[in-house]
Amino acid sequence: PVVEIEKKEHPNQGAFVHTDYENIVKENDLVLVYISKTNIRPVVLHKEGRLNTKYGTFLHSEIIGKQYGSQIGKFLNSNQVNRGKRHNKKNKDEKKEGEVGEENNDEEDEKKFGFIHVLKPTPELWTLSLPHRTQIVYTFDSSYITERLQITSLSNVIEAGTGSGSLSHQFSRTCGKLFTYEFHEVRKQQAELEFQQHGLLYQDYLDGKTDDKNVANIIINHRDVCKDGFLIDQVENINADCVFLDLPAPWEAIPNLNDPRVMNQNKQVRVCCFSPCFEQVDKTIEALELNGWGSIEMVEIQGRNFEGRKRMVKSIDDAIKVLCDQKERRNLGASNYRKYKKVRNELQEKDGINDDEHDLKRLKTNSI
Amino acid sequence: PVVEIEKKEHPNQGAFVHTDYENIVKENDLVLVYISKTNIRPVVLHKEGRLNTKYGTFLHSEIIGKQYGSQIGKFLNSNQVNRGKRHNKKNKDEKKEGEVGEENNDEEDEKKFGFIHVLKPTPELWTLSLPHRTQIVYTFDSSYITERLQITSLSNVIEAGTGSGSLSHQFSRTCGKLFTYEFHEVRKQQAELEFQQHGLLYQDYLDGKTDDKNVANIIINHRDVCKDGFLIDQVENINADCVFLDLPAPWEAIPNLNDPRVMNQNKQVRVCCFSPCFEQVDKTIEALELNGWGSIEMVEIQGRNFEGRKRMVKSIDDAIKVLCDQKERRNLGASNYRKYKKVRNELQEKDGINDDEHDLKRLKTNSI
Amino acid sequence: MAIDPITHISFDKYIIIQLPNELYKIYNTFTEVIGLGKYGSFYSKDIVGYPYGTVFDIEYEENDTEDQNKKQKGKKEETPGVAIPRKDDTAQSLEITDDILSNNFNSESNRLLIDQGSSIQKLSNEDIELLKEQNTRADKLISNIISNNGNFQLKTKQSQQKYLIRKFRKFSKCFKVERCTPQNLLKFLMDKNDLLRINDISLESIALQLNLSNIQPNGNYLVMDETGGFLIYSILERMYGGKEDDETKNGTITIITETEHPQLDLLKYSNYSDEFLKKTIKYISVMELLKPQNEEFVRAEFLRINEDLNINELLALKERSPLQQRKVNWFERQMSLIKISNTVDYYDALVLQTDFELKELVDRISKYVKPGSPIVVFCKFREPLLDLSNEYLMKNLNFLNVKILQTSCRPYQTKRGKIHPLMTMKSNGGWLLSCIKVIYQDINSVDKE
Amino acid sequence: MAIDPITHISFDKYIIIQLPNELYKIYNTFTEVIGLGKYGSFYSKDIVGYPYGTVFDIEYEENDTEDQNKKQKGKKEETPGVAIPRKDDTAQSLEITDDILSNNFNSESNRLLIDQGSSIQKLSNEDIELLKEQNTRADKLISNIISNNGNFQLKTKQSQQKYLIRKFRKFSKCFKVERCTPQNLLKFLMDKNDLLRINDISLESIALQLNLSNIQPNGNYLVMDETGGFLIYSILERMYGGKEDDETKNGTITIITETEHPQLDLLKYSNYSDEFLKKTIKYISVMELLKPQNEEFVRAEFLRINEDLNINELLALKERSPLQQRKVNWFERQMSLIKISNTVDYYDALVLQTDFELKELVDRISKYVKPGSPIVVFCKFREPLLDLSNEYLMKNLNFLNVKILQTSCRPYQTKRGKIHPLMTMKSNGGWLLSCIKVIYQDINSVDKE
């Protein structure tokens, strides 16, 4: 998916906040356009804007004024139908989504109906819509991290590094203040811009651009926390109670948490280090122990998606019947067999039995 | 479970071999008596023998002469029934097994039927029947190991250490020759005796006690393979093509595989090291690489048992009906409600509806 | 400075105490003396004011010791000890430290070890009790255990450690105080083997359900909770974090109950005040929601119950007797229920944990959810969710992005040099289904291009 | 010494070749020239006689090189190279070694790296092809790739490695020969994304099925195989290991087929001779097994088909014409089928992989299994096994120890310093049900004590 938001655009505040009772899509809203499970696109709506999808072009004006959650449909011309079909072949699971109509290969000219949905952004949908600038912490992990760190709306959270900002959105939704650090300057700038567009920067609250400090709560810094620690100019005391380190060498950053101006010194605090390799985990445990952390626990989250599937069920008696018929046909010769079969069918129809129905394949819903 | 086999007993040969067509349990056979899923006992049958179970005492003579797989039942006296009941309470899953009869708490005197099954030993059942002398490699792992080492009836397998001998039985069934090593002298003696009783010792084939070298194929040694290597007096060249190391420090044993008299020098050979901790795996990989092993892969087997369970299903309408009734009863007062209810029921019975049947709990079969 | 009851141990609160055997138990600081059984007892006032997460050691007065020794056999000790907070120890861990252990590891193999059971332990259990009473701190206790076990040096490092940890758990007198958060409450229920009460839900599943439900401090959520209040508490925790008086937060939870009175007994451990819960949580039964009355009917019912009393007159009164006030309350509650049952497209998420037949349920209550908002269903079994997904949601154009998910957390033994997955036989933690409620556009209303 | 075809590459055998991209492909040494596409080609006789597991490098004659370069653009190279076995390398691995990699790791962070895509690689693909043709061995190839990538030193160690491995896989000319064992065949099907053909069974599931079925060299097994012969081959491998002439082994497999002719096309890769398979494997269709004829009926049928020819006369003949022999064969096969269908309590295990409705199937064929022997059913889905277990086996006293199992193998990236679980999206590998057939004792036949 391509981010279609202009670099300098400033959508309406509160993109990630629940809508009011009216639930109406407004001009300049940042919305997520759901095209399929694997194609969700962030768009800022303008009166004159256009949105190109595999189902053709949608005018932003067709979307503005609708309720969030609305389906916006259009009839596809045959050219688009063809493209849609090719797409469907590749990706059968998406068939239901985005396209409705009979599968009629003969009449390509027939108009088909294609649609998109306009959705309010949530951190989870945002994660799905992201161009993968860096590796992403997925919702299976991030939800668990949030719960284990016991993050609530009172928590001050430290996150290093910011990366794609995907997890920052999730933390920001739940926590009090989020201090996030990114050592890669370009990535920091990208993330900062994004947070600004999403109305999540604490600076905007300070500047009076928004009065919802539950939402505008992110403070982002360009920083190598391993070398330069966590202290920042904006605040004297970070008073963090939750720390999340997604760094190649978290053990280098852990000693920097000892500065009394970083962690809240007057309450229980928690840290989570996220590493792919066991060797990293080992060094991290060493650093945590050396720096006075206790109750250290390593865990791994395994998440899975399920889907219902259709399964063939065959009956033994059906199979036997087919084999008997084949044998008889061979023994009698083809023409005799047809005669015989006809007679037998006539006899059986009288008895209300239809022997010809060799329905070998019956479908049942099952799952793996 | 307790092993009831006498130390010096020598049961009939071929305990682990498929039976002939007659499939009859003979005197002096080593059999597994299946009492419940978690209670399987190895027994050598004698004319005069007795077997005590929670269902009472079974005479060996009741078992001898039956077919393998036979149920041997007896009626329990009330004392035993009580014990059985207490057992069942603890372990509901076993209810079906071992006991049949109505659940009649009032009439304790009624005789109940308890039974055992007599089974031919298999390596997998043997593993279940074992007193856990050491940690056991379970069938989920051992079957995978057998397959990944590509063990066939042509393979010469090295196993260190022998441990409980559970895995040795599985290897012995499938492989050509099994060279197994145990550094703990008492454990080695226990295992050797067991292999002898089970007719699995290669020495018995050499001594002419059996002519089935596919079965009598284990050579066991008391040895610390880390210090003293794998070479043994009995054969000049082990010619192993599969190695399984279940040792605390497999990296100490790996260099000893380099002796040209240990591994087959003229074909592809495989090794599997079984370790619980990542640090061990790391050292093992290092040793394998240093000693010229390639295509090294670490895997983990996750095995699970499933069971069907009953699930409650509630209907919304049923719940609403219950609440409406409660409300009416309160509004009308208890006595009026009864009158009202009676009238309503009479009316509804005419229509064939039974409103009183608030069957909130319907059962469905499901599983976790 | 006043104690912050969210971060610090306060009076009249439910707290969780972790014992040396690592199990969690719930106590209340309302109790004057908290007794931990064989791990000792102490005055609850001694621990008030310290931050949650503090480890305390129980120490006994010297002059009590002799008395204690005499009493020991016959009855339980009666004088509580003094709970001393461990200071200068940021780890605040009940675990036995490696320093103590590593001093005693010399033997390298257990080749020569023959298990002689407890006969080899020269210190009897009574001796150990004695030591324990005499102010012996954990490390001293352990070196005593070591030097009195004749076979100790013959054990392998591993069995030495196992042995020490077992003894330590049995004899040390210390404990850690934790806040009664939903996460700690879950651990408590797990230790109590009482997960059935919360539908066998795991921490990772509730976490995923909360994230997918997009819980925010100002949202309004429609919930069914068959976990005795655990789900509600978890949602409240994300919204409010224990703080009742933040004016910037005003989200609500509306609970659909199966019975007339909601069964949310676990909610009491949340330590929220009744006023706060009353303001934040609304209850409505399935009957009141799905078989609603109208105002006329309620007025008629009021007349019938109250024998021709006019509600309008009551409402107009400036001062009411308690009985009159109860009658007004009843009427106003009925009105509010009618309002709820008529307010469709309102809630920011539908969060379900229920045994009701799901197709039927979702079909009838999804109308209350705001379009574009999530519906997230937890179930202990997979089949009902597959059924809901395949037989209802996927066939209905009002639901988008239907997913069935499972998440499970694998704990590892987290000791350096001995890291490995732990084999736990716990249940699988359940399944989740999530989807988005959307508005279906009638195909006939669309212009053909 | 003659070549052992089980351990060494021989003529006229199916073999598996692992390519530098780590994928498995099946070839046949019957082919004179084996072409590996962009990885080169060679004469199959060059690899015959070396043990399975050998890695070969393909080298081209010096004097061919110029020609090759000219041809390069237009058409495919026509002269095969020479396959040279790697000697003195017991690892025989296609992986890129750490020695080569570690020489080139200097930069420590990718802070300054901006991805410039392929423009930065000074060696064009054509250059690399050229290098490759000129007898460049893997390590040389790689140092060339490194020194020609201007940005290489700016990458992190990790991305350097990833880059090298990618290039190596693309350009090196080497391969490894493996025996066509069931395990390697499975990897081949996995690489080909063709696991549906074998019912999505995983190595760990087939392994567990074989162990639970207690396969032995002298057993007789009753099998249904909807994996196109993969299951049969796996059983044969455990029984015989590829060796056809061991007189001490004489087990058989009886296959119940759905159709008249069994569909076991994967069995050809087993390299067993037709004679051996004919001797060891018996086929019987569901009809022939469950709707058997008797001898009288077969004789009548023989008469009807062969127009009053007397089978007894044919059988009595000392010499028969081919046509007569065929008729005798037909008759004898019918007799043997009748015998099979009448032989109950005979087989040492029932091993099933089938789409048939399982309750019905097991109910009708379990009679052929010897009491006390295992029944082991594989299914891609869980529901049919739960159904079989709960609705049939658990209600029937003729089955003991009913278990439903799942096993799954988790591969790890096995590089020291970088060990972590690999995220694979493969299917779950299926479920297994196992139980033991037993003999139920009528309760009325037991004396009351």
From TrEMBL, chains C, D:
Region feature Disordered, mapped onto this chain: 63-83
Compartment(s) where it occurs, according to its Swiss-Prot or TrEMBL record: Nucleus
Domain of life: Eukaryota
UniProt-listed InterPro entries: SAM-dependent_MTases_sf (IPR029063), TRM6 (IPR017423)
Ranges annotated as biased composition (Basic and acidic residues): 67-83
Gene Ontology CC: one annotated term: nucleus
Keywords of this entry: Nucleus, tRNA processing
A GO biological process held by the record: tRNA methylation
Family designation: Belongs to the TRM6/GCD10 family.
Protein known as: tRNA (adenine(58)-N(1))-methyltransferase non-catalytic subunit TRM6
Species this chain originates from: Hanseniaspora valbyensis NRRL Y-1626
